[in-house]
Design a protein that fits this description.
The complex is a heterodimer of chains A (371) and B (284). By secondary structure, chain A is an alpha/beta fold. Helices cover 26% and strands 25% of the residues of chain A. In chain A, strands 7-11-6-1-4-5-12 form a seven-stranded parallel beta sheet, with helices on both faces. A five-stranded parallel beta sheet of chain A has the order 15-14-16-17-18. A three-stranded antiparallel beta sheet of chain A has the order 8-9-10. Chain A is elongated and about 65 Å long. Chain A starts with 26 loop residues before the first strand and ends in a 17-residue tail after the last strand. In chain A, 54% of the residues are buried. Chain B is an alpha/beta fold and 284 residues long. Chain B is built from seven helices and 16 strands. In chain B, strands 11-10-9-12-8-1-6-7-13 form a nine-stranded mixed beta sheet, with helices on both faces. The longest helix of chain B is centred in the middle third of the chain and has 19 residues. Classes of the chains: A alpha/beta (371), B alpha/beta (284). Chains A and B meet through helix 3, helix 4, strand 7, strand 9 and strand 10 of A and strand 3, helix 3, helix 4, strand 9 and strand 10 of B. Strand 18 of chain A pairs parallel with strand 15 of chain B, so a sheet runs across the interface.
């Protein structure tokens, strides 16, 4: 490549000679964090991985990489890990592919987990793709179901063809078997401070001057629409009649600590931005509570939200397809019903119960260990 | 002059794929083949760099002979060369095997047309949805990967410095790197241009370069196609439609309906799952 290039391409990567795959034992979760705060998906994956590890009668491992992240190693134990590999170094502060992937490769080759899981987040996908190519091994993206069979094979199932089908994917040839998995699908174990585990310190694998990228800054988007991680979504469609209709949805979403979503139809006509779109060509979501307001329920919308925990449909048309897949349906004028729900929520909150201050743009606060 | 390689894929427009309700299989007939639209945003960015700094833009794709059409489209938009890597031996490739062939192709493009400074890929394909090929290619070429890029803020061909904005769940990261790099493109990156009339004429007449396995001297045949793919699809199925007993709330007034709904929701496990605190009435 260009003369500045010192490294040599390593195009056909392969394992070193014959590897004894039977030495690979254990399920490992790579914990994702930013500024010392773990992503909830990491603990969710540890929860699911603990089930797999029990079935395999193998240890549950976690890998924590970052700067000043010792408390997360302890947290990983509280969330179920038996062994935590910790690589804590100043230059590992912000995520960067190369230094992080080198640590992962070192840990995987040394401690030999048979399964490695990470969140199907932007960072998780960036990292997993690099590691799997390097090892090399098979990688399944975006899993929504995980299991193991009697041959210790990982059965990673994922949506295919714009969520219309599910496919189960295996990797028989290599270890570890790798998968990224979606946030919000799996349940974390209850945090338990009485859990005990071992923390193994790992050295960084690249020196500072070998790292060629520089994270200049992170601009946190406090108002970023984060549909994928939202627990409550209040979504609107054509029934809103115009862009102004979203105001009533915003009020309800605000009151519940939720996020406003939209159907493709209203995004296409410009009533609201694309970042709010749920369904094909938009976000695939699985919140615990989904309001479909003035949304008829076209297939392209439904594939993006059908895995929501509880669906409430509000529509003037009792025959709208969305009604059939909803847990609760209210037929009528959304401009009367939605404000009435907002009002009722306010009254109930004032009277004693309150939705938690959870908001989808905020991360869980990890409790620092030993404090 | 900069040399930019844009990796594209011709895909069935998965938005148009329907499930046959009788057989529960995919209906692929009549589904249009399109250029994976994330890739077009990668191409557009390459063309903007070409417009501003001057560059040679080479578009590469692995696929069946019919993927020539996709390359012609890219040439009509302004790409200089289109390479179709096509061979039956490549069929059935997963992301690992695909990234091997694409990396070899970039390397060969480098031998043909000069050192590569930038590689663009789409953030993922519409039919595979994995986003794994971009990182795989970067890894094999041993260059930096900048994934999920929504803006190229700065590029200086002299200092070879590039600053991009990477989109993350909770914000945007500004990252600086030195060329060569591989970038995976989001739709937010730009608005792909339409081909001009002379462009269309050029694209129509253009004959893409075709490479087969025989054109790659050192290709390891155990790493391509089905054989080189460690992942196996063991089964596919159409998930059952969401089976629910819809409860229609038919109250007299909207206020009653609203409160009825909240009563229902509070009686489920939602408050627990959502961390809604139901405090005792006698607080204080």
């Amino acid at each position: 490549m260009a003369e500045q290039r010192k490294r040599k391409p390593m195009i056909g990567l392969q394992t070193d000679g014959d590897v004894d795959w039977s030495e690979y034992r254990g399920v490992m979760v790579v914990v994702e964090q930013r500024a010392g705060q773990a992503k909830p998906v990491s603990w969710q994956l540890l929860g699911e991985a603990s089930r797999l590890a029990k079935k395999l009668e193998a240890p549950l491992m976690a890998l924590v990489i970052g700067s000043d992240v010792h408390h997360l190693a302890q947290e990983a134990i509280y969330h179920g890990a038996d062994k935590v590999y910790l690589c804590d170094s100043l230059e590992l502060g912000p995520y960067r592919t190369r230094p992080y992937s080198r640590v992962c490769l070192h840990v995987i080759r040394t401690y030999k987990p048979e399964i490695v899981l990470m969140g199907a987040t932007y960072t998780g996908r960036d990292l997993a793709g690099a590691i799997a190519t390097h090892l090399p091994t098979g990688l399944t993206a975006d899993s929504t179901q995980l299991d193991v069979d009697e041959d210790r094979l990982l059965l990673a199932s994922r949506p295919a063809f714009s969520e219309k089908m599910l496919a189960t994917i295996l990797c028989k040839q290599f270890k570890p078997q790798m998968a990224t998995a979606r946030a919000g699908v799996f349940e974390a174990l209850p945090r338990d401070e009485s859990r005990e585990g071992e923390i193994i310190t790992v050295a960084p694998q690249m020196s500072v001057d070998e790292i060629a990228t520089d994270v200049l800054e992170f601009l946190e988007a406090a108002d970023r629409v984060n549909l994928e991680e939202a627990e409550i979504i209040v979504a609107g469609g054509r029934g809103l009649g115009g862009p102004a209709g979203f105001a009533v949805l915003e009020e309800l979403a605000h009151e519940l600590g939720g996020v406003v979503g939209a159907s493709r139809a209203v995004v296409d006509v410009g009533w609201i931005g694309h970042e709010h779109q749920v369904g094909q060509t938009g976000a695939t979501v699985r919140p615990k509570l989904y309001f479909a307001i003035g949304i008829s329920g076209a297939v392209q919308h439904v594939v993006g939200m059908q895995n929501s925990g509880c669906i409430v449909a509000i529509n003037k048309d009792p025959e709208a397809p969305i009604m059939k897949i909803s847990d609760y349906a209210i037929v009528g004028d959304l401009f009367q019903i939605v404000p009435a729900i907002t009002k009722a929520v306010r009254e109930r909150k004032a009277a004693g119960w309150a939705p938690s201050p959870f908001s989808a743009t905020r991360q869980e606060q990890p409790v620092p260990a030993g404090q | 002059m900069l040399h930019i390689v844009v990796c594209i894929k011709q895909v069935p427009d998965s938005r148009e794929i329907r499930i046959d309700p009788k057989t529960n299989t995919l209906i692929r007939q009549g589904v249009p083949a399109i250029v994976n639209y994330f890739d077009l945003h990668g191409l557009e960015e390459a063309l903007r760099i070409k417009d501003e700094h001057g560059a040679r833009v080479t578009v590469v794709t692995m696929g069946p002979p019919s993927a020539e059409k996709a390359l012609k489209l890219c040439v009509s938009m302004g790409a200089d060369e289109g390479v179709l890597v096509s061979d039956r031996a490549f069929a059935g490739a997963d992301t690992l095997a695909t990234s091997y062939v694409v990396a070899l192709t970039v390397q060969k493009a480098e031998q043909e047309w000069g050192p590569v400074d930038l590689v663009f890929c789409g953030k993922q394909t519409l039919d595979g949805d994995t986003g794994q090929v971009g990182p795989g290619v970067a890894c094999r070429l041993d260059i930096e990967q900048l994934t999920y890029v929504e803006k190229v803020e700065h590029l200086d061909p002299k200092t070879r410095e590039i600053i991009v904005h990477r989109h993350l769940e909770d914000g945007v990261e500004r990252v600086k790197a030195k060329l060569p790099v591989l970038i995976t493109a989001l739709t937010e990156l730009n608005e792909p241009r339409r081909a001009s009339l002379p462009g269309v004429i050029r694209g129509t007449r253009y004959q893409p370069v075709v490479w087969t396995t025989n054109d790659f001297e050192d290709i390891d045949r155990s790493k391509i196609g089905l054989r080189g793919s460690p992942t196996i699809v063991s089964k596919t199925w159409v998930p059952d439609p969401r089976a629910v007993n819809t409860k229609v709330l038919e109250d007299e007034s909207t206020d009653a309906a609203a409160n009825h709904l909240l009563d229902e929701l509070l009686a489920t496990d939602l408050p627990q799952k959502l961390g809604w605190v139901k405090e005792a009435v006698s607080v204080g």
